[in-house]
Amino acid sequence: MRLSRGFVAVAAAAVTVLGLSACTDSAAPESSVEVEEVSDFEDGTTMARLAEAGEITIGTKFDQPLFGLDDGSGNPQGFDAEIGKLVAAKLGIPADGITWVETVSANREPFIQNGDVDLVIATYTINDERKKVVSFAGPYYQAGQDLLVLEGNPDGIEGAEDLEGKAVCTVSGSTSEANIAEYTDDIIATDTYSNCLEPLRTGAVAAVTTDNVILAGLADQNEGEFEVVGAPFTEEPYGIGLALDDTDFRMFINDTLDEAEDDGTWDELWEATAGAVLETPEPPAIDRY
Predict the structure, then answer these.
(1) pLDDT-derived band at 14, boundaries 50, 70, 90
(2) Which member of 109, 195, 216, 244 has the lowest number of beta carbons within 10 Å of its beta carbon?
(3) Rounded Cα–Cα distance for residues 166 and 258 (Å)
């Protein structure tokens, strides 16, 4: 299942998790990104602290094919994980110096605010409400919210406007939950998108909704069961979450992303992960707010 360059679509009870769901730093697979010699970062900056320690803690999702999927040993595989390794490498930190912490939509801001993680790279949409409590580097990818339905689309759902009176599953605390409330008030909210699949199979819900790339990964992982409607109704710029007002670190990450987009590294990381299913899109412009 592959998608065209210009169109990247198509090819669980509310739970708030505020503790560290899972973490690992053992047996981490190496990245293809070359680890750089440590630069002389200014004293007192986050870059200096992390480079001196030789380790970094990154929050990501563990249940999202193509972007962040646990390989069975607690190490996420996918585009988000590779972006994390890219930032770490620019700090002189190899892949085995990363501690990965599982984050779900509801705990991303608390983990950053409490200092449980240094970064969150977890299909994390940049929006003004979140920017009140955390900062964002990026965006590094532009997605759009869409709908996942049973193969063959038996309910004939062509877009979000067809959801009135129908039950929909999404994740608690996500932008998807807020967005879909404009179309239906029958929402089942869970902690992970994978937990929405069984309600869809059984007919308890008519659709699952989140970003098109996440849905495409779920459809690809469960071949023959589901399909993406292919009618995105929002724009979802994915950013890297970090501590509020850590401007130096944010600009460092933005420079890292800019360089990766310019020298082709971004394309290479995409094609090695999400590119197994999706065509390579144009990287989005970095927001230098």
Answers:
(1) very low
(2) 244
(3) 42
Query: What's the token pair of residue 236?
Result: 């979802």
Q: Read out DSSP for 6-57?
A: T--S---------S---EE-SSPPPPSSPPPPPP-PPTTSHHHHHHHHT-EE
Q: The tokens of 15 are what?
A: 């739970």
101: helix, strand or coil: strand
* pLDDT number for residue 10: 30
Cα 129 from Cα 61, distance rounded (Å): 21
Query: In the beta sheet, which residues pair with residue 147?
Result: 209
Which strands, in side-by-side order, build the sheet including 68-70?
Answer: 63-64, 68-70, 76-77
Closest alpha carbon to 229 in 198, 200, 258:
200
Over residues 142-170, the pLDDT tens digits come to: 999 999 999 999 999 999 999 999 999 99
pTM across the whole model: 0.83
8 Å CB contact between 100 and 24: yes
Burial 85-104 (b: 16+ CB within 10 A, else e): bbbbbbbbbbbbbbbbbbbb
Amino acid at 243: A
163: burial class by Cβ within 10 Å (0-12, 13-18, 19+)? buried
Which residues, at least 6 apart from 208, have a Cβ–Cβ distance to it below 8 Å? 147, 148, 149, 168, 169, 170, 193, 196, 197, 200, 215, 218
